[in-house]
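Hi all, long-time lurker, first post. I run a small reading group and we've been trying to get comfortable going from sequence to structure in the token notation. Rather than ask abstract questions, I figured I'd post a concrete chain and ask someone more experienced to write out its structure so we can walk through it together at our next meeting. Sequence below, copied exactly:
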Amino acid sequence: MCGEKFSSRWNPIITRCISHSHSGITGVAHEDAPFVSLMDILTYHNVTAKFRCVVRFIQVYPQDIRKLRDSNGKIKLLAILEDATARIHASLYADEGEKFFGCDQSDEEALVEKMNKLLGGEEMEQVPRNPPWVQCCLLSFYKHKMDQWGSRRFRIFDTWINAS
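-- Answer (accepted) --
Happy to help. Here is the structure in token form:
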């Protein structure tokens, strides 16, 4: 699948060698979308687009599950994602956060278990960890119309952690 050009309802992108194998820990709503690398996403010619990729969650903020919600009670998480080509920061917010964790958010033990599974360790502070390869959908957007490329951000969407 190296260098194969995709044309779909998502994004036509020339891909590099992308591994399609992932742990199955996560599910996505867009199984029909082609996998792309993080470098493909970073170099894509439009600021706003949707993508599907296989990545590892290297780090998440906040690390303390009790601080996962903002003052309005919405999930707010920033993740560092990595593949063989690049690392990016991607956010997970509000309804997408609820969908991602898919459990009673008051059940801290279930959230800790899911986060540990995603990060590849029993405890988030455990070193070395071995984060599993997971699939996720990302969308790119801009925060400031006058500086679209400079304010470009990434958000995880239509992705969830599968039940054990």
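A couple of things your group might point at:
Strands lie at 26-28, 49-61, 76-82, 87-93, 134-142, 152-157, 159-161.
Helices lie at 38-42, 94-101, 108-119.
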